[in-house]
């Protein structure tokens, strides 16, 4: 009896302990499953106590050291590459490398600042600014960030509301089978068209938010100048040209940048290095583990092919004369080329329009945006959509915008939702300035 009691008590304790730790217990026919524990945590990347360092390179030795460091370590996320003396570079340092990294900075006497001590706090705050996927798409606004489903739902809502002006477009399917949806806003069939692409880099959430803001402004603004833009130009806008990556940033890793194509042990091509224009010649990688992996070949990715095909079959038909790609961050308005320091044939015009746009932003919000060719403004890179649009598709006005924050941002790509409205407004002001200036020069005749 006593033995039985002790045995039974032990069994109960064992079951309770296992249940508390969430272990499923299978024991014969009578008792099947015990699962009283809390569900396991989601499969989500975390950045607790990751730090953002901003380092400055004062000599060649430091540059070479950091080039080596970038090659060696996947615990350090470089935002750009070490290239030149005087350059400042932000690096996200994994928690377990902080001591090691700080020692390196001291040993090689690098000037630096710590911009953020716990990156996860930024992400947690940011995730709190996302409205649930289950909401009705009519609740879409520019005070929150939204899932892909809500963005697409909102586009459908707007198309129903403005049936004479708006058409929903479908460019094709992504690697994981998601539609790449956009809209066409057309007042007159003969208008010249402006094409806007955003979200090619998944983690740059401000870009799709800005694209939808622009759609909304064109449809609802009371400003006579904006109404004129909506009437005299047709607008083709694809807010999310990397839907798989965008979804992944909400569900698994806020810092994901590429698409989700599988390469053995790792995933993702940097779609903005995959375009068939001087592909993989500079500022990209042949290594699938890298954030700027150019892909196995030029135009290898489904998302790239969708966009190539759309532009090729519409550039003449729709008279697309302007191509804008929205990215973040660094506050830059850049035009081709990215792959070479050689100048495009209309360099002076693009420089002039870019400078006017930067001045318009300064007047609106006081923010400093820099304008110049992509090569000379941010860093050399090849296989980008803008270079392809300008050089291969022959679209004369082509820009890549890096939206807020500043180059030494403490938030990196995790821009607070309160900045959506002013950032999007700045971007639209810049586009408006560029289009009006180009119009004056006869680009749309
Ligand atoms: Zn980007």
From TrEMBL:
Residues 144-438 form the Peptidase M14 domain. Its cofactor is Zn(2+). Residues 1-19 form the signal peptide. Gene3D superfamilies: Metallocarboxypeptidase-like (3.30.70.340), Zn peptidases (3.40.630.10). It is found in: Secreted. The active site is at residue 402. GO terms for molecular function: metallocarboxypeptidase activity; zinc ion binding. InterPro entries: CARBOXYPEPT_ZN_1 (IPR057246), CARBOXYPEPT_ZN_2 (IPR057247), M14A-like_propep (IPR036990), M14A_act_pep (IPR003146), Peptidase_M14 (IPR000834). SMART domains: Zn_pept (SM00631). Keywords: Carboxypeptidase, Disulfide bond, Hydrolase, Metal-binding, Metalloprotease, Protease, Secreted, Signal, Zinc. GO terms for biological process: proteolysis. It comes from the Eukaryota. GO terms for cellular component: extracellular space. CDD domains: M14_CP_A-B_like. Transmembrane segments: none annotated. It holds the Pfam family Peptidase_M14. Belongs to the peptidase M14 family. Involved in the digestion of the blood meal. PANTHER family: FI16720P1, PROTEASE FAMILY M14 CARBOXYPEPTIDASE A,B. This is Zinc carboxypeptidase A 1. The lineage of its organism: Eukaryota, Metazoa, Ecdysozoa, Arthropoda, Hexapoda.
């Amino acid at each position: 009896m006593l033995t039985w009691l002790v045995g039974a008590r032990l069994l109960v304790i064992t079951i309770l302990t296992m249940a508390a730790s969430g272990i499923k217990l299978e024991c014969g026919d009578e008792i099947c499953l015990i699962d009283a524990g809390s569900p396991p945590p989601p499969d989500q990347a975390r950045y607790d106590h990751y730090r953002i360092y901003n380092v400055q390179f004062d000599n060649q030795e430091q540059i070479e050291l950091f080039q080596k460091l970038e090659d060696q370590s996947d615990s350090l996320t470089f935002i750009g590459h070490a290239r030149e003396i005087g350059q400042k570079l932000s690096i996200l340092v994994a928690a377990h490398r902080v001591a090691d990294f700080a020692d390196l900075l001291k040993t090689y006497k690098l000037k630096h600042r710590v911009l953020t001590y716990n990156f996860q706090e930024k992400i947690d705050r940011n995730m709190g600014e996302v409205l649930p996927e289950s909401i009705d798409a009519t609740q879409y606004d520019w005070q929150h960030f939204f899932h892909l489903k809500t963005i697409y739902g909102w586009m459908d809502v707007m198309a129903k509301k403005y049936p004479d002006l708006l058409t929903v477009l479908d460019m094709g399917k992504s690697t994981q089978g998601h539609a790449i949806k956009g809209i066409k806003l057309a007042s007159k069939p003969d208008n010249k068209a402006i094409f806007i692409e955003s979200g090619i880099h998944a983690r740059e959430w401000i870009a799709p938010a800005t694209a939808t803001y622009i759609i909304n402004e064109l449809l609802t603004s009371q400003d006579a100048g904006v109404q004129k833009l909506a009437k005299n130009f047709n607008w083709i806008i694809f807010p999310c040209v990397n839907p798989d990556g965008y979804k992944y940033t909400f569900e698994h890793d806020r810092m994901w940048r590429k698409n989700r194509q599988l390469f053995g042990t790792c995933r993702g091509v940097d779609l903005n290095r995959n375009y068939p224009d001087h592909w993989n010649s500079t500022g990209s990688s042949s290594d699938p583990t890298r954030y700027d992996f150019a892909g196995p070949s030029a135009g290898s990715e489904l998302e790239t092919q969708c966009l190539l095909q759309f532009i090729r079959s519409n550039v003449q038909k729709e008279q697309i004369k302007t191509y804008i790609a929205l990215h973040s961050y660094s506050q830059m308005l850049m035009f081709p080329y990215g792959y070479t320091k050689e100048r495009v044939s209309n360099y002076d015009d693009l420089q002039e329009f870019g400078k006017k746009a930067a001045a318009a932003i300064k007047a609106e919000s006081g923010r400093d945006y820099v304008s110049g060719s992509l090569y000379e403004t941010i860093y050399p890179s090849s296989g980008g959509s803008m270079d392809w649009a300008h050089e291969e598709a022959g679209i004369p006005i082509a820009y890549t915008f890096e939206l807020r924050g500043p180059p030494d941002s403490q938030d990196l790509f995790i821009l607070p939702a309160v900045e959506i409205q002013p950032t999007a407004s700045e971007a639209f002001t810049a586009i408006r300035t560029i289009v009006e200036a180009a119009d004056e020069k006869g680009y749309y005749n």
